[in-house]
Amino acid sequence: MLPPVGRIDMLRSTRIIFALLLSCTLAPAAEKQALAEDVFKNITMFKGMPAARVIPAMDALTGLLGVECTYCHVAHEWDKDDKPQKQTARRMFQMLEYLNHDHFGGKNRISCWTCHRSHGKPPQFPEDPRRLEQARRAMPIAAADEFKPAEQVFHNIQALTGVPAGELPTIMAYFSSALGVECTHCHAAGHWDKDTPVKQTARKMLAMADATIQRFYGGLSPLGCPDCHQGSIKP
Ligand code: HEC
Ligand code: HEC
Ligand code: HEC
Ligand code: HEC
């Protein structure tokens, strides 16, 4: 016969506490530490992590996202996957690993905080209509060219090929406000087609965003430059 549910919970938490104590006191020793998957029931992303680090990691998550445990869990049913936020969090961990590993040379340059900043969903970044007017003035496009591919209208388009030329001012305004910079942060004034190191970095960032969107959102995504930059040059 199965013990009553309360008893299972108690047994489980005793086991957890015991395992936590064990792994804390034995942590530096060469003995095998209790692993997350040995102590908890439904571990996929924390496989191989010492069990003692799971709860501190959970605590950290609540701070990074500015939420309670119950944003991702039904209280005390920690192993269940019934909240979509828990599943999303797992996917986010994979995205984080991918970004840091494939695009930032293994340096942990990106964290949940980079995009979330204590919000369950990354905060919306306001558009600035003055930026668009400024861009339209700086790069006038003849009406007949609006729908031609950018590479036919401009001189040095490598990343935005196929994009209608008339969209370029919107994109340039978006870059400027996402990073909180003037056009000349990336361009030599008046020589828009000339490459600068920062312009090259911007192209790499475009490729990174594209690859991430393909991989994690099947091509459709709410993810963009402002999610990490949020108005500053270095997130
Ligand atoms: C942003 C979402 C999120 C928040 C907030 C969060 N968790 Fe979790 N939690 C997860 C995910 C995802 C897993 C699964 C980890 C894995 O697959 O390795 C998990 C796993 C757990 C587990 C292991 C359950 C098992 O037996 O498999 C416990 C215990 C837990 N969380 C407790 C907490 C507590 C306590 C808090 C609040 C301090 C909390 N969590 C906050 C997402 C979250
Ligand atoms: C590169 C930016 C970025 C990073 C880094 C990032 N997120 Fe997200 N996150 C998003 C975006 C954009 C959304 C909204 C779209 C979606 O649900 O996928 C989101 C949504 C979520 C949601 C769902 C919120 C809801 O209410 O539906 C959770 C939970 C979450 N993220 C957890 C995390 C965790 C945990 C980490 C760190 C492991 C993380 N995110 C890192 C961009 C990011
Ligand atoms: C974050 C960097 C960044 C900012 C800020 C920026 N640009 Fe650009 N711009 C680029 C990149 C990268 C390209 C090349 C795109 C490609 O290769 O497809 C480009 C291309 C252009 C081109 C096409 C040049 C040619 O002939 O090939 C024009 C014109 C231009 N930008 C104008 C502007 C204006 C005007 C602003 C300010 C409103 C601005 N840009 C802000 C990065 C930036
Ligand atoms: C996943 C998060 C993330 C996204 C999305 C992102 N960036 Fe970045 N970006 C960074 C980080 C982190 C740095 C700083 C790199 C460093 O110095 O270590 C950076 C640096 C830059 C720089 C160099 C700034 C300077 O002057 O040093 C440019 C330009 C840039 N990003 C443009 C963009 C553009 C344009 C987009 C959208 C296509 C974008 N970024 C999207 C994380 C991101």
**Secondary-structure element order, as H and E?**
HHHHHHHHHH
Q: How many β strands by DSSP?
A: 0
Quick one: biggest sheet?
A: none
Separation of termini? 56 Å
Mean pLDDT: 88
Number of helices in the DSSP assignment: 10
Poorly predicted runs of 5 or more residues: 1-30
Q: What compounds sit in this structure?
A: heme C
Q: Radius of gyration, Cα only, in angstroms?
A: 24 Å
Structural class, by secondary structure, is mainly alpha
The oligomeric state of the chains shown is single chain
| Morphology call | elongated
Q: What is the helical fraction, as a range of percent?
A: 40-55%
Task: Give a description of the structure.
The protein is built from ten helices and no strands. It has 235 residues and is mainly alpha-helical. The chain folds into two domains: 5-116, no CATH class; 129-229, no CATH class. The radius of gyration is 24 Å and the shape is elongated. Mean pLDDT is 88; it is low at 1-30. One heme C is lined by residues 61, 65, 85, 88-89, 92-93, 96, 110, 112, 114-116, 120-122, 222-223, 227-228.
Offer a few descriptive terms.
single chain, 235 residues, mainly alpha, 2 domains, 10 helices, elongated, binds heme C
